[in-house]
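Lay summary

Proteins are chains of building blocks that fold into shapes. Our project writes down both the chain and a compact code for its shape. Here are two examples, one after the other.
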Amino acid sequence: MSEHEKDFVGPVVTRGEISDAVAEAAEIDNEGRETRLEENAGYVRIEVQGECVIRFDTVSDVLGHRFTMSDLERNMPAFSGLIRVDSEQVRFLAVKK
């Protein structure tokens, strides 16, 4: 894996309505950063270069109803990077060595 590949971080979300909304929110909340999606049969890997921010309000707006960290946790079997959570957002950070 190249150093560039290690810079991509974000959640792996079970495929469905939540993964669609989180992927759309990732595009909105990380404007200007390279974002990529890896869609598989059962999950979607959402990756942003350097830092991936997912704001709960953005996901709520996309879904049309309230979205919280516990909703993400129930649908996120894995993630890459370091994770930081507060009441408004979750951030996935690349590990710098």
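And here is the second example, written the same way.
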Amino acid sequence: MEMSLTVNYLTNFVMIGKLLSVMKKSGPDCRILVMSGFTEEVAIDLKNKNYSGSPSEFDSTRLTVRTKLYQQMQTGAMSRRFAGSNGTIN
């Protein structure tokens, strides 16, 4: 896996997954806040989420911004799934 995808997206997914069971047992008003930088206009490339091109053409800034966008989309989806419970994910 490319490092930006692993750090910015997959680790958050695993960490939030582990926190959900703790949140469900906790009192009201539990929160998970996911911090992310500003994502510029980036085309979503669903066929190539993990960079597989030539090393000479690797654009780390573009890939990092793309993984942050994935992170924001993931947070929105988790927030909708967790709605109506004792906590929020933002």
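What can we say about the second shape? The mean pLDDT is 77.
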